[in-house]
Design goal:
This protein has helices at residues 3-7, 15-20, 24-31, 38-45, 53-68, 106-117, 137-147, 163-172, 186-192, 201-205, 207-214, 230-247, 275-288, 302-308, 346-355, and strands at 71-79, 123-127, 153-157, 176-178, 218-221, 252-256, 293-296, 315-317, 359-361. It is of the alpha/beta class and 368 residues long. The two termini are 34 Å apart.
Length: 368
């Protein structure tokens, strides 16, 4: 059974009706369980569960320390190209945006890599726009071969690929894959992905599984909160993560919680995930998925990220730039993929993590 088959169970499910009928008694019963069902997750995502947010936070903290210790792993993104063939209405890189396009040469990437390496972070996430002809496999393999000189752990966030292509990149040195479905609601997905290969919903949603089949150590998924109704999107994301975690026990599964920030095309979001609900949902995820990593990026404000450190987070990005060449060759007219909210340096981020009683982990993996 594929995840698409599992997803069909919820095509006609009335999320609003279910969570509107959740009682505090049901929430309390769910919180008493050591292993949560999908119904328990729905109970914890309901508005009434907000009354138990303090208890959820305490349980989430205990569960996180049990499985991950008092650690926050750090990574840093590297954008190597902003060419894109898709029309995603919420993204600053979309094909219709009349912006300066750029693809870094191998020499330019090495300059960026040397600058990033100075931070001490050993985990790098390599990103491109979705334009396969501009960044072909030969180029990507050369990029990975170069970056291995500076970083023992390399993840990618690029256009979806076949198992065969992911295997080529794994053999070159990639150990992690990040791919966001962006929005699980099919109708909304079609509305916001109007053109390009990304408009193929099924091919996109099966990408994380192809990465797991290729043998990547880490597969990270998530929605982009703000595109679809918040509770259904959160629920399906968690179910997707559980499906992957159960089916591929040798792959570390992680979930990201990105919220829409402004981009060049000033996308107006219809749905908003407020800070309190964010915390409620994040802690619900931890209780439902105790072994799954939770990533909070620099999309979020510094103060908010600081406050959620003890509540279930396991991974932070730090010192991020979201434009091509942003670490060494930044120009005023460069367009970021999205705006950064937490602009602190890596050293400043590490300091805060340690002040909260946690250890900032710069390296926890090396390809032998």
């Amino acid at each position: 059974m594929s995840f698409i088959d599992l997803l069909k169970r919820y095509e006609n499910f009335n999320f609003k009706e279910y969570i509107s009928k959740v009682t505090l008694e049901k929430v309390d019963n769910s919180l008493r369980k050591d292993k949560l069902t999908e119904n328990d997750l729905l109970n914890l995502l309901s508005p009434v569960a907000a009354e138990r947010i303090e208890e959820m936070a305490q349980l989430s903290h205990k569960k996180t320390v049990q499985y991950f210790g008092r650690t926050i792993s750090l990574y840093i993104p590297l954008y190597i190209s902003n060419y894109c063939s898709n029309e995603c209405t919420y993204c600053g890189f979309h094909a219709g945006n009349k912006m300066k396009r750029r693809k870094l040469s191998i020499e330019e990437i090495e300059i960026e890599a040397k600058e990033i390496a100075k931070t001490g972070i050993k985990h790098i996430l390599v990103l491109t726009g979705e334009a396969e002809k501009v960044t072909p496999m030969e180029y990507l393999v050369e990029v990975i071969e170069l970056l291995k000189k500076y970083f023992p752990s390399i993840s990618i966030e690029m256009f979806p690929m076949s198992v065969e292509d992911y295997t080529i990149l794994k053999e070159a040195g990639v150990d992690g894959l990040t791919v966001y479905q962006e929005v699980y609601n099919r109708d909304i997905y079609k509305e916001v992905h109007t053109f390009g290969r990304k408009s193929d919903y099924d091919f996109r949603i099966e990408t994380p599984e192809r990465g797991a089949k290729a043998g990547f150590r880490l597969v990270n998924i998530g929605p982009l909160y703000g595109l679809g109704e918040i509770a259904p999107e959160a629920f399906i994301t968690a179910v997707h993560a559980k499906y992957l975690d159960d089916k591929y026990p040798d792959t570390e599964i992680a979930v990201s919680f990105p919220r829409i920030n402004s981009a060049e095309n000033e996308f107006k979001q219809k749905y908003r995930l407020d800070d309190r609900t964010f915390v409620q949902y994040m802690t619900a995820f931890r209780l439902f998925l105790p072994r799954v990593g939770i990533n909070i990026s620099t999309r979020e404000k510094a103060e908010f990220r600081d406050n959620v450190i003890p509540l279930g987070v396991t991974r932070f990005s730090a010192g991020s730039r979201t434009e091509v060449g942003g670490y060494t060759d930044h120009h005023i007219d460069d367009v970021p993929q999205f705006d950064i909210s937490d602009t602190r340096t890596v050293a400043e981020t590490v300091k805060v993590i340690e002040e909260r009683g946690f250890q900032a982990v710069m390296k926890d993996w090396e390809l032998i």
